Structures
1.
Amino acid sequence: METNFDCIPCFIRQTIEAVRFATTDENIHELVLREVLYAASKMDMKKSPPVMGQYIHRLIRKYSGSPDPYKKVKDRFNQYALELYPALKEIIENSPDKFDTAARMAIAGNIIDFGVNNKIDSTIIKKNIEKSLSEKLFGSVTHLQEAVNAAETILYIGDNTGEIVFDRLLIGQLPKGKVIYAVRGSPVINDATIADAVYTAMTDMVRVIDNGSDAPGCIIEECSSAFRQYFFDADLIIAKGQGNFETLSDVNKNIFFLLKAKCPVIARHIGCELGNAVIMGKQS
Amino acid sequence: METNFDCIPCFIRQTIEAVRFATTDENIHELVLREVLYAASKMDMKKSPPVMGQYIHRLIRKYSGSPDPYKKVKDRFNQYALELYPALKEIIENSPDKFDTAARMAIAGNIIDFGVNNKIDSTIIKKNIEKSLSEKLFGSVTHLQEAVNAAETILYIGDNTGEIVFDRLLIGQLPKGKVIYAVRGSPVINDATIADAVYTAMTDMVRVIDNGSDAPGCIIEECSSAFRQYFFDADLIIAKGQGNFETLSDVNKNIFFLLKAKCPVIARHIGCELGNAVIMGKQS
């Protein structure tokens, strides 16, 4: 997905929010803001929005001197989601269609996205889980289930910390032995990395790999060759969240995107309403 | 008032909205957007936000080839306000405190601001007028009345088209012969110029001058020397709207600002709530 003009003011707003989140030093706020404005003035709009996201967060890490500014909130949301996990698992086990409920939970977890909103809290997450159990989905869980049944190998590409625990709920409903879970190669925003997969016990469920990149998405040509091999060898990709959608929507693969549409440009691109829970298949 | 970091994403959003309003040519959208991003990366943040507004709208006029992209909406809102005028005047004439009601009307008219929101329509305007009659003002009408009584010469600096008709309601309650009304020197956004003062019959009520500038505010050092003389000679300035507030809040004069606080940065600067009707005096 290309960058839309409407993404640009959002990049700038996100830059200010993120650099303030990383440091209280106003000189660094200004330095990063000016560099991002300059870069945006020259940017290649054919590239997907996470290319600029990667640039912004590299700058913020560089100037703030913090290799992982979101470490504390990442830990907090992993911990919080782990506390919710037993109750959510019970809801799934007691539901008439476990796969459907688990898919809804996995999508609900995608609300924990500090790239879009760094005011996320437990109240928003709980309301979102409740809503997800009954709301009309944009797309078909049945189609995902059929694609899962037809696949021998599934690469499940995660998105955020906290959310990774919700992914465990859906992975629990996928055939054992078929699934590999992928995380980012290194910290960016609150996206999950190998450390988070270990912390949330995802590594006890399935094999976990990283994509070798610090983009808030999967810019496939920038990912490690090992990741690319898993990606292209898999019969089915399940990709979580907006960043993975933005970077993979034009890649020629059999992919299901599961996400909350939190941005008007993406909602317009998908053809859904802002706020919709999306489960959308794309054939290779 | 200096430019805040939070003004920058808003400049970019306004640029996109305004250039789309001026032309459907996407090449021009991109050209203007990139130039504004570049200029913002180098901008002097000590200057007030309308300095960037002036730059943005100069670019849009230059590249779109339209010297007045808002001409149609300016005419429409002047016409609409003129249709409302007799009924609003009657409300004032029948109210227990005509000056208070007229001041509220003048502030209500400041909602017609295409710099902040180009989706303004008659429903929003009508609701805003109704609200203005009873809402708690941020500031004191009595203080304005006292300042008016003490002044021999009053320079009333207008803001937008449409709104200029609401200004006539307040000017009708000011002492005859004391008031000069000022407009922008040339078209910028939907701000009122001499043509609008003629069209709305402001010129039949009081002497009207222009400030010689195309900024969406009064960048005093850029205004004509004639305007500056009226400005500094006046005992009292009544300045309408956010652009005049942003450019004049640090100028050493006896000024009353009348505006709707439509932007969070300005509301924070003033110390009021977003959406408040403000009538705020500032001593020289």
2.
Amino acid sequence: MPSAIQTLTVDLGPRSYEILIGASILDQIGQRMKSCVRGQRVAVVSNTTVAPLHLHPVQTSLEEAGFFVTPIILPDGEIHKNWNTLQQIFDHLIANRFERADPLLALGGGVIGDMTGFAAACHLRGVPFVQIPTTLLAQVDASVGGKTGINHPLGKNLIGAFYQPSLVMIDIDTLTTLPLRERLAGFAEVIKYGILWDRELFMLLEERLGEILAGNAELLIQLLHRCCAIKAAIVTMDEREEGKRALLNLGHTFGHAIESLTGYDRWLHGEAVAAGMVTAAHLATRIGLCPPEEAARMHALIQRCGLPTQLPNFPVDHYLEAMTHDKKVSGGRIRFILPERIGHTIVRSDLSTQLLRATLEANMEPSAQPTTKGYS
Amino acid sequence: MPSAIQTLTVDLGPRSYEILIGASILDQIGQRMKSCVRGQRVAVVSNTTVAPLHLHPVQTSLEEAGFFVTPIILPDGEIHKNWNTLQQIFDHLIANRFERADPLLALGGGVIGDMTGFAAACHLRGVPFVQIPTTLLAQVDASVGGKTGINHPLGKNLIGAFYQPSLVMIDIDTLTTLPLRERLAGFAEVIKYGILWDRELFMLLEERLGEILAGNAELLIQLLHRCCAIKAAIVTMDEREEGKRALLNLGHTFGHAIESLTGYDRWLHGEAVAAGMVTAAHLATRIGLCPPEEAARMHALIQRCGLPTQLPNFPVDHYLEAMTHDKKVSGGRIRFILPERIGHTIVRSDLSTQLLRATLEANMEPSAQPTTKGYS
């Protein structure tokens, strides 16, 4: 039986939109979209993994609401988050004469969402964009904030746009079809909100992690609503990432370096963020910013989720090199988001290379070969 | 001796910027940029034709003002306005670690401006963008409005973004190095502003065309200021092209079809717009909207500038096909901007295919082979 739908409004003036959160609600997408987009044709962008699982109810609901639906099914994986794949979307839209009012609907995880959003931002200089994120990571992160983009061989998400969706629908049922490894990786971002902003959320995770991982629907909807609300509050304060929004990058400076060094295909984003957050906590402890017992609680919760806590083994210089390519670099200095305690983080860009080296070395896996993190 | 600089503010709230118009002012770019951008490094994007003529004073001025300058020199021509060329800009910026505050400066015509603007819109999800348009067309058209983008094999400017510059500098001295054919093509857009908005401007052109074409600096600066002010007024009313701004596309529905059918390399944009405006006037006369004597004056002024007034010879079906790929298509219907009289235009999207066929046939060159329009 479908549960009640929770609604959250992301308030960005003329670019405001709603996030709908619930269970078994995919069959409502058609009616919901009718009220917020004008176009009559919808391009549903998905991938070869997600489409067989969730395209049918979405397409049926859209068609019943009177939309003409064209699916665009892309290959699955971060490795395809590039211009060539994006080009497939443009070719399809242009060959099928999609017009300015016709929306793109992203049905999938963060990669599908980021690429579809960027395609929507650029096609005819901007067409409407609707998101149905199907991974926990995409639901708590990519569904709020309007960051879209693709990777460049030298770094992640270096090419993209800030572009807001017209509507986001989160159906927690999609999580049941997610491989365990991906579901756990998503919890890295949930924990992130606890560390950076919300001590209560962190404690809820500490206390009820078992039930949450077992899939308690009510708790999951509550968590998703809370994470999205935190991100919405921060994004509303700082739509174009000039201040507060930087805090959301907790764990990402190290995390992006891991993903870049491992070629984007061995570590999941959430896994990289998990090891990145533990490393950031180490760094914060090392400079006397964060009490060791607080850092230990962060480490413990991340470990309980089965997430990695150490960096894969690469030469320290490779890490430093990868981190200077990050978008968060300013004035040539790497910017770090560091926890002061659970629920409060700050930005620091005055850290010495020596200190970074020591932190990287201290929190690195001993093995010479980077391994695949395999849970599934 | 440098003349006084005319300044025009394009009022778009937080995205407002200034257009500086004058003669021999390139050596002021460094100081002017210091006051509106924070970054210390500037990527000057130009092409193999413009760079040898104008890069030196621009680079010197920037370096004297304390900027670190990297030129990115692209191949010249509309045929290169594609992803591959754009990729060269991204590769360069990323390899050289350009940061979010570091601006891109477009030094060239419309192609360079559109590509550089789009690169600035997408690099790290948006970096500052400064324009020095060096063709008449780019000065009166591309320098106001924030339209950026690249072509797709199936149509012009289909992929892009609305992205505003931080500063525009127009130096009419750059026009003296422009081939005659390109200078004349630019007048198509000047005439366009007269037809669509400003009867007085049209009459000034009719009366003093000789002096203007001979390069009278005072008259040129006056014309440029007037065209930019008209465009700024329209764009301010309608930044994202949802209403009034459509009027700026006078001549462009036919014009884009010409460019698409001739593969973007035989007709200059302004030439295509010129023939497109005459065809639009024919169409307006045919439905009783525009008095024949007004249409005749438009035709005559365009002809006096040495611009084409007839469409190149292609099957009518090819024109219809090309026009339905245009961004201006709405609800499957082609949208036309039609003059009611000199100084006033309207939008119509209710015209029959039969009427279009008749208009296309009546205003087409007799020759079976499309020719290159050659003035230079």
